[in-house]
Amino acid sequence: MMATTVRQDFREPPEEPMQPDPRSTGTPARPARPHALRPRPAGGARLSVGFILAKRFTLCAFANFVDVLRLAADEGDRSRPILCNWTVLSDTMDAVESSCGITVQPKERLGDPTRFDYIVVVGGLMDEMPGLGAPYVRFLERAAAGGVPLAGVCTGAFMLHQAGLLDGYRCCVSWFHHADFLEQFEGLTPVTDQIFVVDGDRLTCSGGASSAHLAAYLVDKHVGRAQASKSLHIMIIDEALQAEKPQPGITLDFRTRDPIVLRTLLLMQQNIDTPLSVTEIARRIGHSKRRIERHFRAAIDISPQAAFLRIRLSLAHHLLETTDKSVAQIAVDCGFCDSSHLGRMFRRSFGLTPNAMRAGAPAEV
Prior knowledge:
By secondary structure, the protein is of the alpha/beta class. The chain has helices at residues 59-72, 134-145, 156-162, 178-184, 210-222, 225-234, 259-270, 278-285, 289-300, 304-322, 327-333, 339-350, 354-358; strands spanning 47-53, 84-90, 96-97, 103-104, 108-109, 118-122, 150-153, 196-199, 202-205.
C-alpha cells in the first residue's frame, strides 16, 4: 500500500501495542491473502477489472475508479488499456442509468469471472436499490469460488452483503449510510471511519473520492507505485491515502488533520444518542485512552470528553432551531439522561436554557 505522511507537531514516547477489538475499525481482522493473478501473455495487462453497475449507480464513484485505471494503463494521457484493462459487465447488455441520469452501456456479458483480477460492484441510491439479480449473484459466487477478489464501492457493500458474500468480513460504509446499514444488517458492525477496507479477498470503500484511492491501491499493488501516483496527480489529487485515512464526517468546529482525533470524533458522531466512554472508544480503535487524550490536547487543545459534550450540545442546539421535537426527545437523541440534564449543560454552554432559546430570550451575560 502506498504510504502517506501524517504531519505531527509533537513527539510522544512509544507505548505497548494494544490488541484491537474484533469489531475494531483498526487493523484488518484477517491477513490479506495474496491473490494469484491469472496467467498472462508477455506484455499483457497487469491488472484487469470487471465492473457491475447497480441501477442508479453513483457515477462519481465509478468514474474515479475507472480514471485511475485509465491513467495508469498508458503513457501520458493516451488512455490505451495496456497495463490495465477494464470493462462494464451485464447480463442483459441494457444501458444502466446512473443516479444523475447519465447512462453507461455495458461492453461484455458476464461470462467467466476468472478472466478478471477483481470484480467491482458499484452501488447506487439507498432508496432505489433493489439488489442484484440472480444472474449477478451467481456470477459473483463463481468469482468468489474461483478466488477472484470482490470489491464493493459506495453502497456496493450493501449489495455484496445482501448476496451473502461479505459474511465474516469487515467492510467499509460511508458514515452517511451508517444507520441504514445497521438497520438492514442486524448484528454487523460496519467500518465508517476509514475511506476503504481491505479484508482478505474483499475490498470495500465509502464511494466518491475514496474510490480513486482504492483503485490507486490496486494499481500500486499490481502495476507500480509510479503509475498509481501519476494517475492521482493528473486527477489533481495530492497524494494516495492509506485505507486507514478517516472519512470526512459531519462538519464540526474542530479543525485538525490528526487521524486519531478524526477517527475518535467520527465514532462520537455515530454514537451521539448512546455516548461511548473514552475507554470504549480506545478499545474500538486500538489505541490507549492516554494516547487519545494526548492527541486531543496536542491537536485541538481540548479533552475527548469535552469534545464529545460539545458535539452533543451542538446537535441539540441545531435540533432546537430546526425541528419541532420536544426538549425531552432532543435530550434523548443527544445522549442526555433527561431534559433537566440537557438544560443544565445547555445553559452552561450557551447562557440560556433550551426552552428560553426557543422563546427567543437573550443569552445571559
